[in-house]
Structures are given as C-alpha cells and as structure tokens.
From TrEMBL:
<dbReference type="InterPro" id="IPR055357">
    <property type="entry name" value="LRR_At1g61320_AtMIF1"/>
</dbReference>
<dbReference type="InterPro" id="IPR036047">
    <property type="entry name" value="F-box-like_dom_sf"/>
</dbReference>
<dbReference type="Pfam" id="PF00646">
    <property type="entry name" value="F-box"/>
</dbReference>
<protein>
    <recommendedName>
        <fullName>F-box domain-containing protein</fullName>
    </recommendedName>
</protein>
<dbReference type="InterPro" id="IPR001810">
    <property type="entry name" value="F-box_dom"/>
</dbReference>
<feature type="compositionally biased region" description="Polar residues">
    <location>
        <begin position="1"/>
        <end position="17"/>
    </location>
</feature>
<feature type="domain" description="F-box">
    <location>
        <begin position="36"/>
        <end position="69"/>
    </location>
</feature>
<feature type="domain" description="At1g61320/AtMIF1 LRR">
    <location>
        <begin position="104"/>
        <end position="489"/>
    </location>
</feature>
<dbReference type="InterPro" id="IPR032675">
    <property type="entry name" value="LRR_dom_sf"/>
</dbReference>
<dbReference type="Pfam" id="PF23622">
    <property type="entry name" value="LRR_At1g61320_AtMIF1"/>
</dbReference>
<feature type="region of interest" description="Disordered">
    <location>
        <begin position="1"/>
        <end position="33"/>
    </location>
</feature>
<dbReference type="InterPro" id="IPR053772">
    <property type="entry name" value="At1g61320/At1g61330-like"/>
</dbReference>
Amino acid sequence: MGTSMQRRQPQATSGLITLQDDPTEGDEVEMHSGPSLPEDILCHIHSFMPMRDAARAACVSHAFLRSWRCHSNLNFSKETLGLNENACGKDAPGRVFYSKVDHILKKHSGIGLKKLKILIDSDYSAKDSRYLNSWLRIAVAPGIEELTLILVPFGAKYNFPCSLLSDGSGDSIQYLHLARCSFRPTATLGGLRSLTRLHLCLVRITGDELVCFLTHSPALERLELRSCDKIVCLKVPRLLQRLNYLEVSGCAKLKVIENEAPNVSSFAFGGGNSVQLSLGETLQMKSLSMSRCGSIFYARAELPSSMPNLEALTVHSHTEMAYAPMLRSKFFRLKRLSIALTGASSPAYDYLSLALFFDAAPSLETFDLDVWQRYMKNVSVFADPADLRQMRGLQHHKLRSVSITGFSSAKSLVELTRHILESITSLECLTLETPQSSLRCSDRCNKSGKCSPLAEDLLMEGRRVVLAIRRFIEPKVPSTVKLRVLEPCGCHAV
C-alpha cells in the first residue's frame, strides 16, 4: 500500500473516531492512497462497513475519504457516535450529537445516500427542528431508499416536512419509519410510488390524511401503525393490491378498521373490544395475531369459519369470561398456535378447556402457552389432588413441541399437561417454565454475590410447582418425550 505521508494519526474518543473532524483540514494526519482497486469497487466495499469503521477508514485513506463523502448508509445515534459522558466532557451529549451530525451531513455530498437513520433520545426542543429540517433536505433526494426518524423524548413536537417528498424527491423511498412526530400529508403531496413498507409509531396523523397518502402509494406491502392516537377510522384502500401485512396496535381512539386490500395474508391487532373489524377477503389469511379481551373464545368460536386457511395464530387476552367452546369447525391448516392468558385481571380460567384447540387443529405442530400471573387465582392441585379430570377421545398425531411459560400448581393446568402427555402421540418435547425461573441468581445477585430474596408467596408457589411436576407430571412422561423443566434457581430450590 503506497503512502502519501502528510499528517498525524487521527484521534479516537472512547475507541471511536471523532467523526466531526475532517481529515483533509487542520492538523496533519497520515493518509494512505489505499489499495490499487477501481474506485467503484472500493466504494462498494466501503458501503458495507458499519458507520464507525467507514469513518475510521476515511481518516487514513484518500480513496475511502472520497467514498465517505458519498457513503450510502448513515446511522446517527448517541451510541453509533460514541457519545458517552466521558466523550462529551462538560458539554451535554445532546448538544454534541447535533453538532456532530450537522457537521457530517453538511460535508456529505448528498450523492449515493440510500439509508439514513436518526435516533434522538435526549435534549430535544422545538428549536432543534431546524437541524432536522436541514438534515432531511440533504438526505431526501432521488436515490434515497430508507428513511428512519425516531424521536424518543416524551412530548417531542416536530412536524415532518412533507413538502420534501413532493416533486419526485421521495419517489425512490422504499421504507419510511417515523416515531413521535407529526406527519400531515395532503392531496398535493400524494404518496411515494416506490414505498413498500410504512411504519408509524406515536405519530400524529388522522385517518383521512393516512388514507390520502395510502391511495398514492400503490407498491405498499407492509403497513404498521402503533399508538397513532389521532386515527379514529382506518380505511385501507382496495388499490393496495400488494399489501400483505397489516399491523394496528395501541391506537387509543380507533373505532373502525375497514380493510379492502384483497391480498392481506398477515394481520396483527392489539386494541379494545369496541373496535369494529372488517377485514374484507379473509380466505387467504395465513397469519393472525390478536390481543384483546375475550380473544381466546373469539378465536375458537369465529375464526375457523372466517379464516379456514390460517397457518399461524397468536392470541393474547387479559380477561376471558367464557371457556373455549367445543365446535365442529376446524383449523385444518393451522401449524403454530400461541396463547397468552396473563395479567392480574384474569379470573380463574379452566386451562383444560384449551385442549379443544388440539382437536380443532389436526395439523398443529407447535403449541406455546403463557399463563404467567403474579397472583394465582386458580385452585392448586394440592388443595384438591383427587379426581384429576381427563378428556377422552381427543388424540393428536402431528403436534411435536409444547411449551408452557408461567407454569403453576393450578389444578386445571396440571390436568391440561397430563392430557398433552397422554393424548398426543407425536410429542417430542415438553418445556415447563416456572414463573420463578425468570428470577434467577444471575439477574438478581446483590453486591455480596448472594441471590436477592423472593417474596414469601413466590417462594412457596415455586416449591409447590416443582413438587407438582414431580408428583403429577413426570410419571406420565413417555420415554419418547424430552421433558425440560426450568425451575427456580438453586437458592430457592426445594
């Protein structure tokens, strides 16, 4: 490697190159001409480097310095810039962050930039919007493919300049991720014709503004909306022929979801029971995730007839007022089922009734159940160990893996587990994870190296769980089944 020896070695702060410094100005830095490869190949190699390494290379190589000024992937956060307290000295990390990013982007030629991610997690005020506007004016140009802007501080008020996306400047954007800002597209803006994924989190946008934007984004494949509280009615237009994934969660004022896009095959929803769901054509639905009260009953009673081709189903409920019903309708193609019934608001639930899902899903291969509760409301198997119930005639020949998280001494949960072992002929692995196993020494050691004490009720239930497994579960385990039990740590073992 040839050298053109002119300057001192670059300084590093906390192991990172000081990205604010320009290696071509100021103090002497030792520069290298770089390997004798065509410049386009060097630029291609440089584009695959993480931003820190790319900056280091630019400080010692003329070839990489030219490439740095048109680097295609810029990811700005306090972490990627190495802005800890030691690096910032007396200056606030937020102020140093703005200064560094501003310097780097103003030195960037604007050519070749494909991905820009900006994460601001502290020290944001309204006056800092001028920085963001300036950075976006540099970045949003023909050729940009991914744009991510995440404002973490609560109460951050920033209006994304939608006008930057007009006149074809944003036509190359394929992925747009905005968090905690206002996004107010208008009819004059239209949409982004190359956009395939839109992710909005804590974004202030109305349903009418969103549908206006979606109407002009025909290439969209994934739409993710989280905690967008200005949306009351979400309408997904039919012209989104490529849309296959729709996620809506935590939108507090949402009342209606009307989906007319014909090819949505994956839908994830988390919200209140008052939200009206009109999902349109559901025969092609293959994956569904739902988090709302009563979702377990709803999944068994309604979904087999409306979504008969489901292959993966996840339901999460805090409260179930009725048990899963016994019906003739079946999930003939369902292969993976995940059920979570957690939270202090859940009443005592008959877990044995969940066995009806096995009969309803003859192709099921994986079953995951989460029943973690801080205070168990179910009757313990030790309070009534006699007459453990059985469900006769329900056998399964495809299910291979079962996992139960938050396993307790609840009698109906012990009954369900025994049913699984006795009726599922294809079972290969059963995993039982006690609630206390997540509170292990490695996570709870104090300075003396000893495990912090558990509350007495947790300690006692942990002992009951282990005893219940040994007395009622282990004798039922066939030799062909691997039983994995994640017990409390040694400090709290029986």
